[in-house]
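In response to a reviewer's request, we include the raw inputs and outputs for one of the modeled complexes. The three entities were modeled together in a single run.
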Amino acid sequence: MTQSSIALSTIALIGNPNAGKTTLFNALTGANQRVGNYAGVTVEVKSGETYTPHGRKIRVLDLPGCYSLRANSPDEKVALDALSGTLPGEAKPDLVVCVVDASNLERHLQLTLQVIELGLPCVLALNMVDVAERTGLRLDPAKLSEELGIPVVPMQANAKKGIVELKQALRLPLPVASEITWNSEGADPEAARRDFIIRLCELAARRPDAHQQTLSDQIDSALLHPILGWVFLIGIFFTVFWAIFSFAEIPMGWIESGQGALAGWVSSLMAEGDLRSLIVDGVIGGAGGVIVFLPQIVLLFLFIGLLESSGYMSRAAYLMDGVMAKAGLSGKSFLPLFSSYACAIPGVMATRTIDSAKERLVTIFVAPWMSCSARLPVYFLIIPLLLHEKEGTWKQALVLFGIYALGTLTAFVVARLLRGRLGEDITPGHFLLELPPYRKPQWSYILRHVLDRALAFVKKAGTVILGLSILLWALSTYPKKDGVDDAEALAHSAMGRIGEVIEPVVKPLGFDGRMGTAILTSFAAREVFVSSMAILYRVDESDDEEKNRSLLRDQLSGSKWPDGRPIFTPLALVSLLVFFIYALQCLPTTAVVAREAGSWKWAIGQFVFMTAFAWVASLLVFQGGKLLGF
Amino acid sequence: MDWQTLTASGIVAITLVIFIYRLARPKKKSGCGHGCGCGKTKDP
Amino acid sequence: MSHALATELEIDSAMTLNQAKVGCDVQIRLLSGPACERLRDLGFCEQLQVRKIAGGRNLICSICGTRMAISRELAEQVLVSPLG
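The model returned the following structure tokens for the whole complex.
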């Protein structure tokens, strides 16, 4: 038999969440995937390829982590489908590698037995043997293999130990499906498996004192303390916000001066004219004005990665469960909603671990109100204007925290109302969460992930936002009118005309036509708001263009209504902030919501509702504020 | 029209065409679509 | 018959995981309730030992070396008895 006549084998990786399945997948296929130290982070089926020591190519599927094949949640259903060959586009795998945590055989072997019962050939990957050994567990892989009837490979996937041995087990001919020795008379399969596992563990995985207090437990006595735990929770998250603000200042300063220098250099290259204006105002000012927020984005994702990797996230979810219940949700909604603070798209996708269908829909619906990172450029533009920079970063952090709190609180209230309207679940779900041991953050994964997001941000700036900035520049430059001053030329351009039309709609919110236009453009991508503002307000200074190009903020604070009143009063700024907190301005999110919720009606309903809500909220803030005398 | 206006208009026109092309062609991108960088892939 | 009676008596004197004292080790005697299967999948099986670490709205237990948090409603379905 030559190698070319052998069809490509497919093996599937299955196992409990946190068993190290994805680590093994990465080690086998060399792909860079995200690993979360929190049950349910990997929810998709990934595929990759690997080679045996003989050079034979094998296809590897990474199935979602699950506790059993009973199909209680969407994760488990996908896994069961994949193993049964009913997943669209996938035949039954040729072999299943059951990844188990050697320290947790009593719990993880359930799944393995269920896979064997499906009649599929199996190999047991006994992972994390290092941890098991450290806790004094006595493992006997040979005995395990003998009793189960399948090959058992001890390994430590994160140190790449045992990978070669695993690949050896995958050589042809593949192992055959094992016989089921634990359930012969057709008695209750659950009980039969259970008894078998308990006997097996006594033989092959002897455990000394199972409940020693570990270091993790000691840490948890503080972090999960009913009162102290909350102090830590709020403290940690507030610190994260503060750190993002202050640490990012220096690199932001570099980027800003770099921008200014570049603009100055380009201006010196050519005479005044449209191309120069396009490059300096449109490209550098517009797209560049968004790049300056890269340091904040990087820091945000860095901290989220740290919290997840160290294991703290589960504790946060545990503490938050009580609070979530007030919103009609559970602690399981915590990770999706928290992820939405970075970007609602992975957040919405993470809702697949939520058992209750109705809770899932509600979580998806309110997720966009967890202010995502795309809003940060807008917030960081407006907040210093509100406070005048010299007041120090802690006040700015406080305002930012207040913004997040407002979005979150509203989301909870709406979630509660919506949950009530949707009614009870057919089968009630229950809170259930594994608290993995604390561990040192896996820096390589975190940094890789942060790099991915940073590159994605820059790519988005370099493509979509750059393109939009160019178009916006054109709209605000053409049609031209010669011989008039800058303000009139702008009013005459396409942008100016749109602004006139929009103005009556946004004036009650405290915005002028140009802000209305900028808001319209930000429905394409929120970051574009900053670019638009840079372009729309460039004509407001009477000074030498080069000097004032430096800071958009200076330009904005100097802007006035025709009657001389300043446009950007604190009240107007707050109204603008409120609008951005509530408006849903991201088409990719709407598309993902439609897919995850299963209908476009939900997605469109969400969009319409949130836009209307934003408008009304801004209205209330601005008009209410005026009545109160602000 | 001087050369600057000509070039600038050219760039704008190309940009517009690129945008329309991206909107019009059927989305074969998987998952979230654009550069939010979450790295998720479509299930097979 | 007497064996069955003895078992029943034993179960009657058992308490739920909620009622168990925090910090003590117990053995699972019986799972009864709608979510038994889910509990078993997670490792809460009969004859296994559990240490209750924290109580309240959601309990924290140590089972087979793993820390798990489960809700009150679930804990109500786990009948345990203290280890001698």
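As requested, we also summarize the result in words. Strands of chain C lie at 15-16, 25-31, 49-54, 58-63, 66-71, 78-82. Chains C and B do not touch (no CB pair under 8 Å).
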